[in-house]
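Format notes (please read before filing issues)

Several people have asked whether sequences and structure tokens are stored in separate files. They are not. Every record keeps both together, in the order shown below: the sequence lines, then the token lines. Line labels are part of the format and must not be stripped during preprocessing.
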Amino acid sequence: MKLIKKSILFVSIIISLVSCRVQLEPVEILTFQQKLEKLFPTAEITKMETVDYFKNNYQIVLNQPLDHKNPSKGTFKQYFYLSHVDEDVPTVIVTEGYDASPRTYELTKILQANQVQVEYRFYGKSRPDSIQWQYLKNDQAIEDYHKIVSKLKRIYTGKWLSTGISKGGETVLIYKSKYPWDVEVAVPYVAPLINTKEDIRTQNHINSVGSDSCRNKIEKFQRLTLQNRSLVLEEMSKYVTENDMSFTELSQNEALEYAVLEFPFSFWQWGGSCDEIPDETSNAKDIFQYLNNIVGIGFYNDKTYHDLLPSYYQHITELGYYGFDIEPVKDLIEVVKNPTNNRFAPKNVDLTYNPKYIKEVRDFVENKGKNILYIYGEYDTWYACAPNPKPHVNALKMVLKEGSHKTRIKDFSKADQKIIYDKLQYWLGYSVTIYPLVD
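Then the structure lines:
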């Protein structure tokens, strides 16, 4: 009897299950752009023209908090550019030090990777109409990057790397020190970590790099320029008029003196040629053109002055900078008696310098900064401020002999490039493909 009851119950259950229709949720298949829109629901996402090997390119504008610790303080619009290949290949985040002009970076090409190029807060298009300077701090910028990376990791499952050039490279190191696990590998190019507001190491570099004869020619050129001041100013005035520049923040005379004081730094930074330095047989036009070629007189015009206010604020308050050696031309100076980069900083703003900030970053990268590939040029003035990872740290520092601030991996010999590729391969694993640069 019990067996019959159990059989009837079993049959009843089977009939019930068969008669019921199971309701399955439909699978939502999203396009890549829809995935982005889901990740960044309030962002402005604009599809751009596809370039290089990428499948899709986007401009994304986020509403980022002014203060990540207190979002109630408001937001600003931050621009970044996403170049997409595939969700499981490596992704390179470019931590720009200034504004961002969309382009494909060298490291990205080496890995045929996705690229996330982020404009630094308060620069370029990401600059509010009125800057609240207290929020232009490196820690706030690092939170910008961390927030973007954390979200995009929901899409991109491959290895992550960071890269940047000069101030952007310095940002790579700061980011690495704050969030060491956000990326597997960091590749800063020509990145200084500056010790003080006027780091003496840059001047020591200027006084020792190259040959004695070249350094003597540099000083003679500085003096030659100011000894021919009136004629050089005439050439400068023509150039300013032709290029529709204005000089109200600095007079043209003051700009000329600052350019002369800047000349040795820029000469070694950008790889000037000693053989091309004008001498006493040169006319005023040649003198000005060479000074302009090395320093760029437009660096001191009103537009650039305005554009670089955030940079000078950061250097003077947290990053540190360099000073000027007035001695070679002291007797010829008329305006700039006490040269200082404070001259280019925003007015009526607290410029108190924090000496501990970069020291903490340096301590981290030199003692714990593993999987960092450093790229430098030997003659570059900023190389004087390069960190020196300790022997126990798994890092690689490559210095191009007589290289400048323009040094890239492509400039190294094939043998040195192989060292670089092998190290990247070791750090990233053999599931990642390296694509050697082609001449």
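For reference, the curators noted about this record: The longest strand covers residues 56-65. The chain is about 40% helix and 15% strand.
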